[in-house]
Each structure stands twice: as structure tokens, then as C-alpha cells.
Amino acid sequence: MVYLVGAGPGDPRLITVKGLECIKKADVLIYDYLVNVDLLKVAKPNAEFIYVGKQGGAHTLEQDEINNLLVKKAQEDKIVTRLKGGDPYVFGRGGEEAIVLYENHIPFEVVPGITAAIATPNYAGIPVTHRDFTSTFGLITGHEDPTKDESSIDWSKISTGIGTLAFYMGIKNLPYITEQLIKHGRSKDTPVAVIRWGTTAQQKTVVGTLETIVQKARDIRPPAITIVGEVVKLRNQLNWFETKPLFGKTVVVTRSREQASEFADQLYEYGARVIEFPTIEIAKPDTIQPLDDAITNIHAYDWLVFTSINGVDSFFQRLLELGKDIRDLKGIKFCAIGPATEEGIRRYHIKVDCRPPKFVAESVVEELKKVTVIKGKKFLLPRADIARSFLPEELEKLGGKVADVVAYKTVMAQPKDINLVDKIKHGEINFITFTSSSTVRNFVQIIGEKNIASLNGKVQYASIGPITTQTAEELGFRITIKAKEYTIPGLVNAILESSIPHSDS
């Protein structure tokens, strides 16, 4: 089976539900240049990825070779998902690929996608139809088949017969397009918008008229779409995307891959471009026996204290693996640092008895002293292998009996984006975020200690809390953004505040 899937215009969240399902079940994913690679993250771990992008005159594979590849992979009894930018049947050569599949007796389905002619002007604040301006809308290629003897575009009819015109792939031919429209009756004062990398945080929009747009858009490079029509005038009122507070900003997220999505989603909502650069991975401890022993004797503890969501997940996963469930936790009280850790506990339908107002170990001790007599109580702390010793030491000083067991360990990840230092030096990165001391230390290991000093001043570093900040500053980072609330939403708010211009008055 082959699925010809429209991947949408660039924003990965604009893919259809069915398109996403096709990615998830594919054995082979064959994708184009305009497909957002973030979509590939949901593929099966053993899926094969084949890039067949065409960029300008450079083709990874010619179209005939792509057609043959689809046939070959399908004949290997594999589920093939062919990801195409926008919609497969709108200047995507999906029809040609479908015919080849039909001729080779290979079953196929076509999954429509949101095409750039609709989505891109939308994100630029331009509705393609509006009852006060036009009720007609045309999609036109700005780059016809170069082997044809003559143009199949009837300029005399489309120039004045259609209200809004959307030209795909027409940047190189923009002088010719504007010349033909004016020549065949369209007013030289007709508004025009050229939009590059539409629906993404790299979107750039240039507005002019048929007479001026060639000059104004001289620095625009493909991929871009051109919108011609009176509806372009509405951009000043309807430009919702480019006015987001983090639009045009690039943020690096150094959290583990498993935890990056929540952070990235919040940044996306404010218009940021997010680069996931995981510096840590969560792994099982070198020996699971201490945790197993603690769980086997869980009834002996008065308190379970969790200092991270990873500790929660690791503990409960092992609890269930050992054949136990939440009934075995009857009578034990729960303490959680921070709302995310509390929410992780509540997912198991367990009420948290103590949550300190500040999300650091020092605050945990103070809050526990308010809700219980620590002396003589037994505390179980399922934590990371590199957790600070402050909490167990302070509880023991107060007479508590503490089992500080390793529930998980953090190991250094190997990010794929190895050109991050160059991107920072070239001004392509605005913020780098740290959400734990581990992310800081591993970031240094990955990019090299010698690079740290040279990067200060070229990018802003944002820290989630005082312990992370202290680690970063000890390693030579200049932290300019500090979360007031030591949570992911708090870190996002700190980045937002740093991006909003403040008046001196």
C-alpha cells in the first residue's frame, strides 16, 4: 500500500489527522524538501526514511526515479507513505505518481493536505476571498513545465477574470508574471504580497503593487508564494501570526526528547521557531535492586518524596512491573516539588499531601516541617543518580530516616544538529534554555568548553531556577533570563518578558 499524503504548508500542526496516521503506520517514509521534518518524529522507530527533495535546480532524485522508488518499496510488501508539501494534487505531481502506481497494480490512497495558497496568506493576514473584495480565487503555477512549447496560462482571462490570484513557485518569474498581468488589463496599482516560508516561524512577507513588488521582493528567495488581489489590503487588520510576541525568534530546547514537546508547544503558541537539541536522556539506573527493595518494603515508609516528574514516572513504572499497584501505597503520604511533579502523581489518582511554595529542596524541608513531625518518620526519595544531597541530609539532621534510591539516571544525549555553534555565531539563535543542571553540563560537553566564552553576548541564556543558574554561571554562561516561577510555564513567561519592549517611563 502507498499513501500519497499532503503534509501541509510548513507548520507541522497543520497536517490532517489521517495524514498523521499514515506517518505512524509507515514502514517507509519518502519525503520532499518542503515537508517539515518534525512530522517524522511520530514514525515507527524502525521506519526507513528516504529524502527525495527538489530545491531549485538541484534534484536528489528525478521524478521518474521517485516513481520507480515508490513501486519498488511497495513491491517489497511495505507500507509506504509519500509525504508531499501542501496537497499532493496541487502542483505536487501527485497525479503522476498515482498513475504510475495504478499502472503497476499497486493499491494507493491519496490524503489531501492544506495547500499553501490558502494557508500561507492566512498566516500573513490575507483572506483569499472576502465578500467586500472578491468571490473568485485562482491557483496558478509560476513555473510551468520547461519542456512545453508555449504557456498554457491564458493571461487575458485570468488577469481580469479572477479576483485573487495565487502563484506557486514564481519568484524567479515574478517580473514576467507582473508584466503579463498588467499587459492584459490588471491595474498596476493592484496589491501584491510575496510570502516566504509561510506558516513557519521563518515566514517573511513583503507587500507592494504589481508595479513595485519586483523591486520590493528582490531579496526574497524560494520557497515563496505570491498573492495578487485587493484582499491583500486586509493584512494590516488581520495579521495575527507575525504579531505574536516570539515571532521570528529561535529558541533552543535542551530538555530530553521525551519532555521537550510540552515546552516546545508553549513556545510555538507564541510564534517561536523551536530547535530541539536534547542534551540528556533518561535511562534506567545501573542497578535496579535498591529501588526494587524499597518497593518490596513500601509499607515501611511514611512519606514518598518526589523531586521531578522523571522520578514519578520511573517509580510507578517499576511498581507496576513488580506486580504491585496503588493499593500497595495505602497510608503513605506524598510530597512533590512543583506543579508538573504533582500532576504526574495525580495521573495515578493519588492526592499530594505536601507541595512546597518554592520548587527547590530547601523549600521541601521547610514545608514538611509544617505538615509532619520529621523525627522518627521514614522517607523514600526515588531520584536521579546525580541528585543533590541537601534534601536527604537535612531530613536526617531532623531525625528522619531516609532511603535515597536511584530511580533513573541521566545520560548525555547525542543531538543531531551539530552546527549549533555556527548558527549562534551567525545570529540565527535568540535563546538557549536550560531546565536542569544536567542540561547545562551536557550542553558544555557537546558544544565544547572552549566555545562558551565566545558565545556570550551572541545569544541569550534562559534558566528555569536558581540551582540551574548557579551551575550555568559556574561553567561560564551569562544567564540573562531567569524564571520567577521554577516551572516550564514560568520559563516561557520569562522569555516573553525579555522579548517585549519596555518603555523608559
UniProtKB/TrEMBL annotation:
CDD domains listed in its UniProt record? HemD, SUMT
For this UniProt record, the keywords arranged alphabetically read as follows: Cobalamin biosynthesis, Methyltransferase, Porphyrin biosynthesis, S-adenosyl-L-methionine, Transferase
What GO annotations for molecular function exist for this entry? uroporphyrin-III C-methyltransferase activity; uroporphyrinogen-III synthase activity
- The domain of life for this entry's organism is Bacteria
Q: Does the keyword Methyltransferase apply?
A: yes
What's the EC number here? 2.1.1.107
Q: Does the keyword Methyltransferase apply?
A: yes
Alphabetized Gene3D superfamilies for the sequence:
3.40.50.10090, Cobalt-precorrin-4 Transmethylase, Domain 1 (3.40.1010.10), Methyltransferase, Cobalt-precorrin-4 Transmethylase, Domain 2 (3.30.950.10)
PROSITE patterns reported for this sequence: SUMT_1, SUMT_2
* GO biological process, alphabetically ordered: cobalamin biosynthetic process; methylation; siroheme biosynthetic process
- Per UniProt, residues of the Tetrapyrrole biosynthesis uroporphyrinogen III synthase domain are 262-492
Q: Which PANTHER family match?
A: S-ADENOSYL-L-METHIONINE-DEPENDENT UROPORPHYRINOGEN III METHYLTRANSFERASE, CHLOROPLASTIC, SIROHEME SYNTHASE-RELATED
Record family assignment: Belongs to the precorrin methyltransferase family.
What this protein is called in its record is uroporphyrinogen-III C-methyltransferase
